[in-house]
Amino acid sequence: MQPSTRTQVHADELGRAVEEIVRGVRVVDVHTHLYPGCCDGLLLRGIDDLLTYHYLVVETLRYGEMEPGRFFALSKREQADEVWRTLFVEHSPITEACRGVLTVLKYFGLDPNVNSLDEMREYFARLSLCDHIDAVFQGSNVDYVVMTNDPFDRLETPYWGPEFAEDSRFRAALRIDPLLNTPGEAMEYLKSQGYAVSMDLSQSTFAELQRFFERVSSQIRPVYFAASLPPSFRWDDQSVRHELLSGAVLPFCRQHGLPLALMIGVNKLSNPQMGLGGDSLGRSCVSTIERMCADNPENRFLVTLLSRENQHELCVAARKFPNLMIFGCWWFLNNPSLIREITAMRLELLGLSFIPQHSDARVLDQLLYKWDHSKQIISQSLAEKYRGLLEAGWTLYDDDIRRDVEQLLSGNAQSIMGIR
Predict the structure, then answer these.
(1) Packing angle between helix 336-350 and helix 311-320, nearest 10 degrees?
(2) How far is it, in rounded angstroms, from Cα 34 to Cα 149?
(3) Is residue 229 part of a domain?
């Protein structure tokens, strides 16, 4: 008989052991806005893209030194200079988004204590696209990311050739926001592409929509369908959105074994002057999510809500519906104090049956800091729960911790997406 390789973990070594395991486990990042290398015109990377991320733009404009219209009239390079001057030179960069930039620069060995971006720009200019992608995936320990792929986007769809799906580190998700949020415009686009659809929402229209889904799915092979919805979303309100979901989207997902990911709670363009940074949030209705799950037991749902006030209700809903998988701390919740609070609550209510985080990365380099920072909190939260088990007399082994962490950081995602 082979001797056991299990190592018992004691209280005095718990924090270090959990952190080491969490950092070593590879991640499945279930929601990003990244693109594979063949989409070089769309994939954002490097210092100028990092600094013109809309989080940092809004923080810069809050200081009131430049009007939004004047800022957005600048070139990307000039905007990056303005952000760096305002947030990193004239003020201490204490927000989470600023700290993220510093984490990226540290990974690449770049000094942030400078007034000029010249050295950083030169560094990233020398870094080839392939080497850059390799370095980020290695540094973040991400196995693969799931993208956001919009079949209504005339800039993106021309890239959907055979090479689009060749790099297994980038998996597709079919984003159908236009169909659910601006259906009239989406129908007009589909008609221009040769689909016999209309707003009468007849069975023939649903059949044409599914024919459209079939064609685009064959191009990019999505692992789920997805949509971002306002806080006013109601499943059973008999609206056009409800008819499209129940008549076309959910039947297609059932037939093809695809989950539907819903990101609910964004109020678009509360301040249009801020561009992408002008969106706000509102509290969503969790009971409508419960009714949707109850009415569609054969569908699987990935759900994340934007309002902090919704998180406890959503946890309770997930306890009742096995076809509901909570994922991530989205957008305005992606701050350490809130991630810590939400992760602890989910562990206490759901055990290991949720996806604790996704990066929502829009810039390749953000994978480095978003997972570095999140893993710190996830390991601390887990160590606290394990410490309670030890105090209650439970014996804990390192391979138990590794099993649990793998489930949280990759296993649950792959299970809900049907990937083995």
Answers:
(1) 30
(2) 9
(3) yes
Render 348-364 in DSSP notation, one character per residue.
HHHTT-SB------SBT
3-state secondary structure of 417: coil
CATH number for the domain spanning 16: value is 3.20.20.140
Strand pairing partners for 232?
A: none
At a CB cut-off of 8 Å and minimum separation 6, what does 345 contact?
311, 312, 315
Task: Specify the pLDDT at position 188.
Answer: 97
Closest CA to 7 of 396, 297, 281, 307: 396
Consecutive sets of 10 residues in the chain, 420 residues long: mean pLDDT of each? Answer: 75 97 98 96 96 97 95 98 98 97 98 97 97 98 98 96 95 98 97 96 97 97 98 96 98 98 96 93 98 98 98 98 98 97 98 98 98 98 98 97 98 94
Give Dmax over CA atoms of the chain in angstroms: 74
**What is the extent of the structural domain holding 187?**
11-44+139-416
In a domain, 209, yes or no: yes
Could you count the other beta carbons within 10 Å of the beta carbon of residue 292? 25
Alpha-carbon torsion 251, 257, 263, 269, what sign?
Answer: negative
- How many whole angstroms separate alpha carbon 38 and alpha carbon 162? 10
Q: How confident is the model at residue 4, as a pLDDT?
A: 57
- Give domain status of residue 302, yes or no: yes
Half-sphere exposure of 8 (CA within 13 A, CB side): 5
Q: Which two tokens stand for residue 125?
A: 């200019």
- Alpha-carbon distance of 304 to 356, in angstroms, equals 10
Which pLDDT value is given to residue 91? 97
Report the pLDDT value the prediction gives residue 410, as an integer from 0 to 100: 98
pLDDT for the residue numbered 330: 96
**How many structural domains are present in the chain?**
1
Please give the Cα distance from 146 to 257 (Å, whole number): 17
Task: Say whether 46 sits in a helix, a strand or coil.
Answer: coil
Is residue 97 domain-resident? no
What is the model's pLDDT at position 1? 41
CB of 314 within 8 A of CB of 326?
A: yes
User: Residue 128 carries which DSSP code?
Assistant: -
**Among 337, 363, 352, 33, residue whose Cα is nearest residue 177:** 33
**Exposed (0-12), middle (13-18) or buried (19+): which is 3, by Cβ within 10 Å?**
exposed
Alpha-carbon distance of 140 to 184, in angstroms, equals 41
DSSP state of 93: -
